[in-house]
Amino acid sequence: MSQSPIKTILIPSLLTAGVVFGLSVTAVTNYNTLPSSEMPQELALKEQYRNIAVRNIGLCILGSALSGLLVAGGIRSIQNSHKKAKQKQDSMSGLIAEFLSTRPE
Questions:
Q1: pLDDT tens for each residue of 35-86
Q2: Which helix (H) or strand (E) holds 49?
Q3: 9 φ, ψ to 5°?
Q4: C-alpha 56: how far from its chain's center?
Q5: Are 13 and 72 in contact (CB under 8 A)?
Q6: What percent of the chain stands above pLDDT 90?
Q7: What distance in Å separates the CA atoms of residue 38 and residue 9, rounded to the nearest whole number?
Q8: 31 to each of 12, 15, 25, 62, 85, how far by Cα in Å?
Q9: Distance between CA atoms of residues 22 and 18, nearest Å
């Protein structure tokens, strides 16, 4: 718990979001789908591909942001459980030490 939240939470969540975004963009991008000549039907097809690409990139952004938030939430919950376990251990150690100090020899 002595490290800053930037090192423990922000960097892993940003790295996860970046990796998920990169992988999802490469998965949805499809090269060599458009013909090279520019005929009217092909221009309409190109516009349809552009609309699909914008929608897919938006979904990639949402997915990567959600993955980053999930990683940050997971790290926070792990830290909280470690903190509670440490407090419980410290209180038990204090009770044991108090019991042993008041016990007659």
A1: 555 667 767 777 777 778 788 888 999 999 999 999 999 999 999 999 999 9
A2: helix 40-102
A3: -120, -50
A4: 19
A5: yes
A6: 46
A7: 49
A8: 31, 26, 12, 23, 52
A9: 6
